[in-house]
């Protein structure tokens, strides 16, 4: 953990990488993302209060072979300037829970209202782009934090990220 209580970058466990590969949804060089309702307790749009601790979200739209309302289980950290949401399990309706690695936003977190109380992050919307990752917390240091960047082509990625994906 960092001094503000937020998680450091971390490799995705082998079991989760294998499960994602079996489901055909693993991380890809295209940096595509899923549209996710971050916390199922708060409607499908509008301002949201994410509370530090466990969270359950769901797919807002189908993603590859995963249907809408597929649930994502994870953790929220609110200690820093940004709220960080990482999901570590997924459950297709009627199916069993499987391990995954996914995180909201590819730049280290979601912007939160500076007036958010301790342990809570007030964010502008409950719908967020979430991407499957091989390593949590990989950010593009050339971009300002708290923004979502979707790269259309691998050649648009920063050189270090591009080289790592080609390995």
Write the SSE topology:
Layout: E1 10-11, H1 14-23, E2 34-37, E3 48-51, E4 53-59, E5 71-77, E6 82-91, E7 97-104, E8 110-111, E9 120-123, E10 127-132, E11 135-136, H2 159-166
Antiparallel strand pairs: 1-11, 2-4, 2-10, 3-9, 4-5, 5-6, 6-7, 6-8, 7-10
Proportion of helical residues: 10-25%
Order of helices and strands: EHEEEEEEEEEEH
Strand content is: 25-35%
Assembly level? single chain
Number of distinct helices: 2
- Write down the overall geometry: globular
How would you concisely characterize the structure shown here?
This protein has helices spanning 14-23, 159-166; strands at residues 10-11, 34-37, 48-51, 53-59, 71-77, 82-91, 97-104, 110-111, 120-123, 127-132, 135-136. With 167 residues, it is mainly beta.
Task: Give a description of the structure.
With 167 residues, this protein is mainly beta. Helix content is 11%, strand content 34%. It contains two helices and eleven strands. It has helices at residues 14-23, 159-166; strands at residues 10-11, 34-37, 48-51, 53-59, 71-77, 82-91, 97-104, 110-111, 120-123, 127-132, 135-136. The strands form three sheets. Strands 2-4-5-6-7-10 form a six-stranded antiparallel beta barrel. The chain is globular. Residues 140-152 have low confidence and may be disordered.
Short key terms for the protein model shown above:
single chain, mainly beta, six-stranded antiparallel β-barrel, two-stranded antiparallel ribbon, 11% helix
């Amino acid at each position: 953990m960092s001094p503000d209580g937020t998680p450091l970058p971390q490799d995705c466990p082998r079991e989760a990488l294998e499960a994602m590969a079996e489901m055909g949804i693993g991380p890809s060089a295209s940096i595509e993302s899923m549209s996710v309702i971050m916390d199922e307790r708060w409607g499908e749009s509008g301002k949201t209060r994410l509370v530090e601790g466990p969270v359950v979200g769901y797919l807002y739209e189908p993603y590859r072979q995963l249907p809408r309302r597929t649930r994502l289980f994870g953790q929220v950290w609110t200690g820093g300037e940004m709220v960080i949401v990482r999901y570590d399990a997924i459950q297709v309706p009627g199916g069993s829970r499987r391990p995954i690695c996914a995180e909201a936003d590819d730049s280290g977190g979601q912007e939160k209202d500076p007036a958010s109380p301790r342990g809570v992050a007030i964010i502008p919307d409950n719908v967020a782009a979430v991407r499957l990752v091989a390593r949590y917390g990989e950010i593009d240091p050339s971009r300002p934090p708290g923004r979502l960047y979707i790269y259309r082509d691998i050649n648009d990625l920063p050189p270090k990220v591009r080289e790592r994906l080609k390995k």
